[in-house]
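idk why but the lab printer keeps eating my pages so im just putting this in chat instead. protein + magnesium ion:
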Amino acid sequence: MELLAGRDPEDARALLDPVLTTMIDSVHRFEGTVNQVMGDGIMALFGAPIAHEDHAVRAGYAAIKLQESLRALSEQVQRQHGLSLQIRVGLNAGEVVVRGIDNDLTMDYSAVGETTHLAARMEQLAAPGTILVTEAFVRLTEGYLHFKPQGLVAVKGLAEPIEVFELIDAEPTRGRFQAAARGLSRFVGRRAEFDALDDALARARSGQGQVLAVIGEPGVGKSRLFYEFIDSPRTRGWTVLETGAVSYGKLSAYLPFRELLRTYFQIEARDDAAEVHAKVAARLTELDDSLRGIAPALIALLDVPVDDAAWPTLDPIQRRQRIFDALKRLLIRLSQARPLIVMVENLHWIDAETRAFLDNLVEIMPTARLLLLVNYRPEYQHGWGSKTHYVRLRLDPLSAESAEELLRVALGEAPELEPLKKLLFERTDGNPFFLEECIRTLVETKLLVGERGACRLGKSPAAIQVPATVQAILAARIDRLSAHDKRALQCAAVIGKDVPFSLLQAVVQVPEAPLREILAQLQTAEFLYETSLFPELEYTFKHALTQEVAYSTLLLERRRELHARIVTTMETLSGDRIASQVESLAHHASRGAVWDKAVTYQRRAGAKALERSASREAAAFFEQALEALEHLPKRRDTVEQAIDVRLDLRRALVPLADRVRILDHMQKAEALASELGDQRRLSWIAYGIAHCHYLANDQARTVEAGQRALALGGGADLAHEVGVNLLLGHSFHMSGDYREATVVLRRNIELIGERVRERFGLPIFPTFPGVTSRERLARCLGELGEFAEALRVGDDGLRIAEEINHAPSLTGMCLGLGLLHMRHNDLDRALAVLERGLDVGRRGSIYLYVLTVAAAVGRVYALTGRIAEGVALITGSVKEAESKNAALAHPLRLAWLAEAHLAAGEYERAWQRAEESIALSRRYKEKGQEVWTLHLLGEIATQRDPADFEGAERLYRQAMTAADALGMRPAIAHCRLSLGELRARAKHGEAARKHLEEAAGLFRDMGMVSLQKRAEEKLRGPSG
Ligand SMILES: Nc1ncnc2c1ncn2[C@@H]1O[C@H](COP(=O)(O)OP(=O)(O)O)[C@@H](O)[C@H]1O
Ligand SMILES: [Mg+2]
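predcted complex ->
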């Protein structure tokens, strides 16, 4: 330290003391011994006098911790004294001679010899603020710490220059098996499984991505198998990313991948947003500069605010898409650098988003150097069974032979043990976890005595009883723990599978030192493992079952208390990082019966899930919020919450198309809001109800509820009015009420004004209201024959959709404009814009739109002579829609198919499809569509062989009357033309002329030149 020169001694002391304290604390934290305090520094030992096998690692952690704490302190000193404060650290590993100078508790040690001399040299050579270490140190800590080589350095007193390294940082966590590496039973058997794993590995290495699933009961050895495989030399040169699900994580969207990213980017619990951004950016740039674009999606997954201007404008569906893409690109890119293993454990606990992502990954991986390893319990199911790159391994309990080996290594070979071994194998059925727990019990109850691998019977075998299940064994073992140990273990179980020390301490309420002792006991007894020393001390349960059983030994009342205490503790400990913990807080608050907080956190967790389009999880959180509300007294504010949660729930249920549940919640909410006489909430509920009816294609009810919603006013909320208008516009359009539709849609465009880039809350259509209002208005105007205005509005909509560059809006707009051009009989323009929509839609996987756009393209093909292509496209889309139960727009698709069959001369098929279409439009009261299909039926009747002219005439007239009532001028014109042609054919000159003149006039007015000419030619024609 160089800050003391020229300072007044008292001043210097005041500066130095906190520095020394900080250094000493860092050493103690990792159980080192400070054996010398010099004027401006300290010397510390690890591994003596307390022996730690990982002493070098601990020393490294302490050094990193020390530099970090010093940095914080130095900022303060800088501010107060204008001094910069930096220290150097040197580390070495080797033998030391330790002399006890004093014998009491304040023992003082002084170490001498070459090892300490070299450490001191490292310290002197280090640049201020850094940590310099020797090669010996690096060798002992590889895999735990990261270094940067600094080259060869000459050291006074040594003949040869030595290699030195700078210690950069620590590998964040270790898996539980690594943590237990010394205590593991010898790995036995599993040769066939290893062969299958080798095989998959070889294929993956050669660029044929593989998914390998290991399925088995708890404790059978799924995780251990993966651990042994990954830890073996075969995976050298591979990148390995490990993650997994936990039993209480089912609702945390993407939890396993969040963990995976945290590990990959080395994000630590205390990193603030800036650090997370920096780490992600640095790692991505290092991997591949072109990956910079995926950073926002990854950052969002890490629960840190995204600093990308475009991100907030994306809707949840797009965000989800981005997240999927980002993860896929990251994994694929990694697999190009080096072959990649992604391991996801415990799929039976994964959330719906992770599940969807894995399905996605499995689809794209066959050509990647990627091995996806997953495991799960037998009750889990997925749809990968038919994939050729999927391998399934059913993991059975150990064979008699393997179990025998395990027991031999653990107990030894004394003949008196034979009956016991036989009993153990029979009772446990060869489940290795069960076996291990049995052995532990026997040792703990002194039925077995002696060393590991050389045991003897302590009592007669008759006294030995093995409970029937591993749970019972675990419960009995826990019961035998001392009161303190048991209490700590139970508290840990309430926290979860992973247990941060700081949280545990606050919950158990025992000082640090005794608690550490307790934890050391629990580790020796193999209930817990220490998985992370750095940056935070953290423990994990040996097995999920251990945690479950420990949890179940608690009385309900006690559990509740602990969960409640965890909530308060987490709130204080997590500070501004609470956003990443809301799911966990929600879980503990609900279990802890802290109902008001449960409501708050469940709602926050739900909102967070909604943001990411994780609808299923969001719905579950909101439902739990409702449950929590049930426990609160009925007051105005709680009733209001009960309504609002249901409104939120609606938003989560819409993408799940769960109409029945939505309607049920809306009706309950309506009853509550009526009690309160709350107009504003009632109007939102009416909006929700209208939407339910719309989804059911019940337009009359939609209109009724929508108008009620408007009348109630929505508390003058623009989002409400825009939403309801849009819904009404759609609904009127569907039911053929084009004039009404134009009124609400025009009003909407006016209301939205310049705010075309706004979503107006979470809209019910996956598009921007400013675009969709124009799209629908253009189509309605088209049906009314107001083409000039329709085209203007449509082009406006397209321009806006392009400007905001929003794929669903753009696809929808292309579709609408395409349909308008078709209606206008301008097939060239229709085709151009539809093909564009198809392209955008397919690239953005905007499934529902693509279905209709593809059919529309097919229609244009069929009408322009590309009949086979057209039929194929429309047929595909009809089938797809039917398999997905997509009711909206289905009559339209069926009518197009009929029309294409007609063009192909397939009259019977055409007739059949047209009848199906008309039946559906009648069922759904789609009056406009019915008009067009009636006209089409007329065409089929005219063209089929034998023709049915009378029938055709009837159909045309029926269509015309209906079209007239709805003001559908293009439809009227078409009916007139067809009727005119029919009459002309029958030589009814006068009647023909009347129809044809009407038709020609209408087509002229609407600017439909070729049809106008067709009518006029007929008028001039020989029979006219
Ligand atoms: N083949 C094996 N040889 C020795 N011990 C095993 C073997 N398989 C599993 N074990 C031990 O059994 C216990 C449970 O195994 P684990 O892999 O956690 O089970 P699972 O993941 O199937 O629930 C662990 O302590 C593990 O070390
Ligand atoms: Mg496991």
